[in-house]
Amino acid sequence: MTLIFSIYLAFRLFGDDKQLYSPGEMTHGHHQIEMSCATCHTDAFGGGPVIQDSCVNCHGEELKQVDDSHPKSKFTDPRNISRVKELDARLCITCHTEHKTEITGKMGLTIPEDFCFKCHQDIADDRPSHAGMDFVTCSTSGCHNYHDNKALYEDFLEKHIDEKNHLAQVKVLQKSMANDLAMLEQYPLEKYPLKQLTSSDTDSPIKVKNDPLITEDWSMTAHAQAGVNCTACHEQKMESGEIKWINEPDHNSCKTCHTTEVKGFLEGKHGMRLNAGLTPMKPSLARIPMKSGAHDKELSCTSCHSSHKFDVKHAAVEACLTCHDDKHSLAYKDSPHFLTWHKEVTGRSQPGTGVSCSTCHMPRQMQKIEGHSLVLVEHNQNLNLRPNEKMLRSVCMNCHGLEFAIDSLADNKLIDNNFSSAPGVHVESMDLVRKRLEQKKRKEGDGL
Amino acid sequence: MAPSITPLFYRGVWLALFFGNMNRLAQKLDNTKKCFEDPVIVVGTGPVGIKFIRSFLEQNDDGDVIIFGNEPWEPYNRVKLSSFFAGQLNWDELVKSQKLPQDSRISVHFNCAIKNIDTEYKKVTDDDGNNYFYSKLILATGSSPHIPNIPGIDLDNIFTFRDMSDVEGLLARRTRSRKTVVIGGGVLGIEAAKAMARLNTEVSIIDHSTGLMSSQLDEAASEILHEYILSEGIKVYLDQAVKQFDGDKKVEEIQLRDGRTISCDTVILTTGIKPNIDLARNARLSVGRGIRVNDAMQTSDKHVYAVGECAEHRGKVYGVVKPGYEQAKVAAYHLAGKRANYSGSLAGTQIKVIDKSVFSIGNIDDVSAVGLEKEYIYRGDNNLYRRIICKSHRIVGAISVGPWSELGRVQEFVLNKRFVSPFALKRFKNTGKLWPEEDSGNIAQWPASTVVCNCTGVTRGQLTQALNSGCTSIPQLSEKTGASSVCGSCRPLLSQMLSGSPAAEPAAGSGKLFVFGLLTLAVCLMALLLPRIPYSDTVQVMWQWDSLWRENLFKQISGYTLVVLTIIVLFLSLRRRTKYFSILSFPVWRIIHVIVGFLTVVGLAVHSGFYLGNGLNLYLAGSFVAVLLAGAISSIFVANEHKLDVSLAGKIKNKLVWVHVLTFWPLPALLAAHILKSYYF
Fold first, then answer.
1. So what's the pLDDT on residue A275?
2. Which member of A41, A135, A380, A412 has the lowest number of beta carbons within 10 Å of its beta carbon?
3. CB neighbours (10 Å) of residue A258?
4. In this structure, are residues B597 and B626 in contact, taking their beta carbons and an 8 Å threshold?
């Protein structure tokens, strides 16, 4: 009996479905790919180093980009060896253990929130202003972030002190791909030269029935204007070298030109399951509220961009709201942000002045491709989602003063009503900076 | 105060202060020191006298004892005299069980009757006029045959059947006797008749009542016995009285009241016994039918005890040996200053000298008119007859003729007033058996306190101890414990014990089994019902207890400790199931098993904090908790098993252990997978 049972257990361990062996649910960040054990456990019997590599594989680049305030090098530095004893921050899993629902806190943190105490217990000596502050508040009050301090460090705050709530100049970037395509070496210019196509120019094979509605949709798009014909998406090179027509191209087709966007999509919440070799993400698998009618939709490029129409305005708001059903999403259309978007869409204001869902969650960013700087949409919404301070530099500060933005992001009520009222929370960080500036001035005055 | 007593005294004071009972201290000092300055004297070398000496030596570390017997033989087992007479035992076998222990404290005076007791000076005088002083005197004078006052009773060749001299005379007579008449159809009469009939002697039994063994059997049983006796060639005259014995010097003819005459050359009188109380009466001790004693077996003089057939306790004189043994034991305990109370015995009778097994115990009078008692009768082939009398679902009496494998248990049920289920009674009515086949005779599962040998009062627990100490045959067991040394009717039970697996001894560590079982149960329930042990929500603590569940090193230590504990626990199975592993006894392993089981549940708490997890981890933790729960309950049950009904206890225990073992089965696989998984991922 026991033997048979053992064989069954072994079968489950080495088989495809390892759910039996999952020691607990995963965090909000990874729950989508729980069933793809090998995404993180890349090698059997690999142990800790393998896991660490897996963490860095996906998250390392981002940490580098945000100039991680506590990089591994800080702890491998011999001068800091004593710190490692307190908190082995060389390894991600010291603070972020997976499968531990019962102790998983915000940001997937699995150690007590006051962990800063371990190394910074004497902070009040250096910064008398911090005396008496609880160590739980280091990160919760929107002052510090263990990894990404880009928008919170003192010099930055000082630089943006006393900014107005609404900046005079709106700095939302304009997309530039269509203009810069010709510069890209990998773009198949010979086959699809940059010239406007019309419905009569379609190059689909004869055996494929030509749907006039589809052709109509296509002819209105940027694709048609830039010379991207049917076969550009619908033909795919198979492994055998044969070129084959496919009826429903997936993200692999889009990738040919939209490499960065697809990469972002696959890293983000909408595409990470595909990236892990699992079935596409469905709203029903999400942990945040989703519209019941949308539960079985499978997420791909076309689920937001729709095939043939590729309407980016639709993708920026309406596409989101077909699925998302949380308070923040539902409150959007009653918000001042939507008003600006509405005005832009209806042509009553300049392009780039409206704030859509994607303005904040999939912002346009300057990206380097083949040495050229292009403004592209970042499809990995994780990059500025949590903690929401990450959004300050990339999004909020395009239009708002820093202090106002920090306060707004710290106010949960505002997040629920989609920023429809003034912030009711005040984060002290800017005040502390002001005080310090005054002290400096006074000192300088004394010095004189 | 003598120096040697001082430590004892202090300990005594301490105890006395502790219990707040100075009387007890005084009594203890009185008993331990003063009472044995003069020897203890025992009058009577019958089985009860010998039993007393044994108990006395067991219970007291000092004090001399002198035993007087008026017979010229070394002590022999009077109870088996019929068997000896019937030729089933030789002399050696007859005296074997009555050998006195080799002890310098004993002095023996055989063939030396005590003529007088002086309670004032506490001395006895023997035949030759020698005086012996005693500290305590034990009268085990037994009884004499009752000789009815019938004309011609003084004729020659009229024998009594009581002691060795009677048997000597009868043995000599048997070869010549052509016609023997036994007066009295009781147990002894039937046994004597059967023994006499061996050499084609024509034997008749005359009894004044309407049935044989009328005081022990009911009419139906008597009839069956009657038929059987007839089939053995023995004539039976019932409802008859002897008018007179005729003959010239020797008895030649018996005249019955109804005018009939029976010619005979030998007469054996088995017309009852009368206690030997003359010695006591002459010493002015209170006597009735026997020597009157209180619950401590003391006569009206507190330094004089009476035990056995000569004693009258609460108006009752017992004519069988088992109550005598109990009385001897009580007296020996009381002498040792221990609390002992005799509250009477329930007599069971079983005769084996005839090939037919006849059994009777308890209250077998006719069912009373009030109707509180209910009787159940079963009749089977070959004159099988069984009748039990129940009162509020407890057997109060039983009679049987013919073999009945459940006799021992029935006896145990009657003696301990145990409950019998309606199902058992129904089964009895239909099949003649109270208990299902498989557990009817499983003596090893009887409670330790159950008396196996009715004559000597040896319990199942004592026999188990003897077995554990290395006894491997019935004679060894008998020598060690005394069981089966008297009537021998418990031999089948002993052989069953020998052939069965060594039974567990509930007394061995039952306290530990209970406590650790309870502890394990408590922790298991905590794991299931209470909230999990919380993780620390701050790092600003002296000891981060949750590091036990956070850090790999601690996880590994606690995890592998659990593996080791699990392996240790398995030694119990190994000890039980294989003969190659024989270090320590099974009960010792069981205690280890239960303690380690408790450690395992503690280990589980340390390893998991009772976060039982998901998937495999959950199944493993669940399996652990299930095994431990079943184990804890089994342990608690085993510790209390002896308090329960025998068959029920055995059944429940088997089921509990079965559940315990079943729940263990998946555990090795889960554990292995769990360990493998920890390294795999």
1. 92
2. A412
3. 18
4. no
Q: What is the pTM of this model?
A: 0.58
Say whether pLDDT at A195 is over 80: yes
Across the interface, which of B535, B615, B665 has its CB nearest the CB of A22?
A: B615
Task: Say what the alpha-carbon torsion angle A80, A83, A87, A90 is, to the nearest 10 degrees.
Answer: 10
Tokens of A184: 């890209």
- Mutating which of A7, A9, A52, A137 best tests the B interface, going by the most B Cβ atoms within 10 A? A9
Tokens read off for B206: 């005359």
- Note whether B319 and B325 are within 8 A (CB): no
The pLDDT tens digits of the residues spanning B601-643 come to 999 989 988 888 888 899 999 999 999 999 999 888 888 877 7
Which phi and psi angles does B473 have, rounded to 5°? -140, 165
3-class state of residue A188 by DSSP: coil
Cβ-based contacts of A111 with chain B (< 8 Å): 539, 550
Which band of pLDDT confidence, cut at 50, 70 and 90, is reported for residue A448?
Answer: low
Distance from the B333 Cα atom to the nearest Cα atom in chain A, whole angstroms:
56
- Which strands form B261-263's sheet, in the order they lie side by side? B242-246, B253-256, B261-263
**What letter represents residue B481's amino acid?**
T
Of all helices (H) and strands (E), which one includes residue B194?
helix B187-196
Average pLDDT over residues B234-252: 89
In this predicted structure, the answer to whether residue B364 has a pLDDT above a threshold of 70 is no
Which of helix, strand or coil describes residue B293? Answer: strand
Q: What CA–CA distance (Å, rounded) separates B506 from B210?
A: 48
Nearest to B673 among A13, A37, A135 (CB): A13
Query: d(Cα B42, Cα B136) in Å, to the nearest integer?
Result: 9
Interface ipTM: 0.84
Residue with tokens 């147990």: B187
The predicted-structure confidence for A311-367, as pLDDT tens digits, reads as follows 999 999 999 999 999 999 999 999 999 999 999 999 999 888 999 999 999 999 988
Query: Could B550 and A21 be called an inter-chain contact, meaning their C-beta atoms sit closer than 8 Å?
Result: no
Most trustworthy range by pLDDT among B22-26, B266-270, B372-376, B546-550: B266-270
Q: Is B680 on the interface with A (CB under 8 A)?
A: yes
**Is A2 in Cβ contact with B668 (below 8 Å)?**
yes
Per-residue pLDDT reduced to its tens digit, B304-351:
999 999 999 988 888 878 888 889 988 988 888 887 788 877 666 666
Coil, strand or helix at B376 = strand
Residue A447: predicted pLDDT:
64
Model confidence pLDDT, tens digit, residues A138-177: 887 678 889 988 888 888 999 999 999 999 888 888 887 7
Q: Rg of chain A's alpha carbons, rounded to an integer?
A: 25
The C-alpha atoms of residue A162 and residue A151 are separated, in whole angstroms, by: 15
Q: What is the DSSP letter of A208?
A: S
Q: Does B476 contact chain A (CB < 8 Å)?
A: no
- Residue listed under structure tokens 């991922």: B681
- For tokens 């456990």, the residue is A41
Contact between residue B322 and residue B61 where contact means Cβ atoms under 8 Å apart: no
List chain B residues with CB under 8 Å of A6.
668-669, 672-673
**Which of helix, strand or coil describes residue A191?**
coil
DSSP letters for A107-174: GG--S-TTTTHHHHTTHHHH-GGGTT--TTHHHHTTS--SS--TTTSHHHHHHTTT--SB-SS--PPP
Peptide bond into A423 cis (omega under 30): no
Phi/psi at B360 (nearest 5 deg)?
A: -155, 135
Please give the Cα distance from A395 to A374 (Å, whole number).
Answer: 17
